[in-house]
Amino acid sequence: MRSPITPFAAAGLALAVFVTLLAAWLVAGTPAAVRGNLPAPASASAPAADASPVAFTLERGSSAGEVGRRLEELGIIRSGRQFELLARLTGLQGSLSAGDYLLPRPASALTVLHLLTVKEAVPVLRVTFPEGLRIEEMAVLAEQAGFGPRDEFLAAVARAKLPPGLAEYLPPGADLQGYLFPDTYIMPVGSTMDDLVAYMIRTLDERFTPELRAAAAARGLNPHQALTLASIVEREAVLPAERPLIAGVFYNRLAAGDRLGADPTVQFAVALDPASVQRYGWWKKDLTIVDLENPSPYNTRLFPGLPPGPIACPGLASIEAVAYPTDTDYYYFVADAKKGDGSHVFAVTFAEHERNIALYGAP
User: Fold this and answer.
1) How do residues 208-267 score in pLDDT, each as one tens digit?
2) What sign does the CA torsion over 238, 180, 312, 321 have?
3) Residue 344's closest CA among 361, 331, 363?
4) Which of 20, 38, 105, 278 has the smallest C-beta neighbourhood within 10 Å, fewest atoms?
């Protein structure tokens, strides 16, 4: 006599059927093709004509879920969850190969899983630009990464053009200091300095979103002015939590028609002299009375308002701090030399500021 099918058995059978159908829908090809035992599916070897390659680094130890989420955030695939399920159903969640990739965008989850599990030798150049560097410092890093001579990087910057939305706010005769977005860039071997610079400008245009530009405009700054202030915040702030507060202090000074009094702008002004760069580098640490009296319009210790342009290339956090500053009554700040962790002590009045200098300033 046969045992009747229990509700649990029926549920298990239904689940098995569902998983099988889901696998068929997700894979849309054979697992062997995904594993590289057979030729890759057409979508993996021939991405759409309008697909734009996107740099992607797969860190060692990343889970399929983490990778899927990042792929979705970058707009490479539509669903990170679908990618994770596909990796699990094909048994490839533990076979993701760490490394640097150039992935088509948009692409199917199957295409990307194939690319990330079948490590294909695509030689690339990789360079990381920290936030707050001058273009001249970036040129050295680009040279070290193998893109070419540093002078060619500077020449590429001089040749580069800004896209609409940024170009119309660039003052006549101004260079592109501040317009190269600091990030990690992965490009095919053979990419030129012009390719790299264009990629950096395009990244700034994407990351400095219309929403951020509108928020800065609401506070009276056009994109060029916002990048200028962001570059000063970038060089002043060390702790991420202080960026919006430091931006708020500078807004208070701008509203009062006062001098920003930012030492990094003095450092920038001093570095306009090649002899100073040779002796002290791009950011002279110990400023003298003579330095503080430098007549350059970039010297915000001497002249009120914003300098003519950015003094460095700011990162997204500093741009966001300028777009969304902390509303504060603070008007002054000084580095806390006692803590030595990059933090600052803030004050409303000059008397409080003088006391903070005495208590917390460098000896």
Assistant:
1) 999 999 999 999 999 999 999 999 999 999 999 999 999 999 999 999 999 999 999 999
2) negative
3) 361
4) 278
Q: What is the amino acid identity at position 19? A: V
Do the beta carbons of residue 197 and residue 180 sit within 8 Å? yes
Measured CA to CA, the distance from residue 269 to residue 283 in angstroms comes to 10
Q: Considering only CA atoms, which of 14, 22, 38 is closest in space to residue 109?
A: 22
Bond before 106 cis per omega within 30 degrees: yes
What is the maximal distance between C-alpha atoms in the chain?
103
Tell me the C-alpha distance between 348 and 331, whole Å.
5
Give CA–CA dist 279/147, Å, rounded: 27
| pLDDT tens-digit map of 8-58 | 444 444 444 444 444 444 444 434 433 343 334 333 333 343 456 788 888
Determine the Cα–Cα distance for residues 324 and 119; give it in Å rounded to an integer: 42
User: What would the DSSP string read from start to end of 92-155?
Assistant: -TT-PPPEEEEE-SS--HHHHHHHHHS-----EEEEE--TTB-HHHHHHHHHHTTS--HHHHHH
Residue 332 has pLDDT above 70, yes or no: yes
Give me 286's structure tokens: 């110990």
Two tokens, residue 185? 């860039």
